[in-house]
Amino acid sequence: MSSQAQLGDDDLFGEAAAEMREDVEEHLDAARAELPSADDVWETDADNVLGVLNGLKSSLDIGDVAEELRQAKKWYVIGSRAEAFDDAEDLEEEIEELEELVETITEAREQVGELTGVMPQLRGALQDAADAEDEDEEEEEEE
């Protein structure tokens, strides 16, 4: 193979590596853009606990974050295995940080979902207990 052909291959490889890095960065940016805002998960205008929980659960929906993160990781793995990146530590750190955040959000959403199911039952049980107490007091007054 001539040195000119080798140089062309090196140029193509360098161009492909730059495109891979750009793809990883674009998918990471897209994933970050899909994350809920801090205000969305903190502020509420609901009138009761169930409204707060339903609003929080909705705000913790991460939409396409997981798919964008998967795509970023896929291109990162390909680039890393091909040794296409001169310095990939920053990409690896960003992917890991985003994976941890996605895991935290997913766990929080599951916990909120559980509370959303429990709170109406708890309210009903407390109402039943209060009604039973009221009935006991009425019976005592009648005697």
Automatic annotation (TrEMBL):
Chain intervals with Acidic residues compositional bias: 130-143
Location of the region described as Disordered in the Swiss-Prot/TrEMBL record: 115-143
Entry protein name: Uncharacterized protein
Superkingdom of the source species: Archaea
Organism: Salinigranum rubrum
